[in-house]
Amino acid sequence: MKTPSLLSIFILTTFLTNFTVCKTSCVMATGVLKCPTDPHAVKKVHIDLWDEDSLPLESDDLMGRTWSDANGNFQVTGCASDFGPINTPDPYIYIEHDCPHRYTNATDPIQ
């Protein structure tokens, strides 16, 4: 049985590494939540930082999670990696709040 040469193993490893390149990005988002209809609704609001994955059969990745303080201040950080040399993470924030809308009284999440 013939054993593979060191050179062929090196070439194969280099070839496979080029196809498994991922782009990693880290982000930090800070802000202050305001609720004009109920100023107390900004306390302990659930805030998620997500990476949007638009490729087929991919789901969005959770990058970070936090809750606002009593004054509505928040800071959320996180990192994400996307497969491929040109596919970079696309972060967005999801805010799950209880601030009623001024006209409809709805409390739809903000994205």
Automatic annotation (TrEMBL):
PANTHER family, per the entry: TRANSTHYRETIN-LIKE FAMILY PROTEIN-RELATED, TRANSTHYRETIN-LIKE PROTEIN 52
InterPro entries noted in UniProt: Transthyretin-like, Transthyretin-like_sf
Keywords carried by this UniProt record: Secreted, Signal
Species the sequence originates in: Caenorhabditis latens
GO cellular component: cell surface; extracellular region
Secretion signal span: 1-24
Annotated protein name in UniProt: Uncharacterized protein
Pfam families: TTR-52
Family: Belongs to the nematode transthyretin-like family.
Localisation per UniProt entry: Secreted
Chain coiled-coil ranges: none
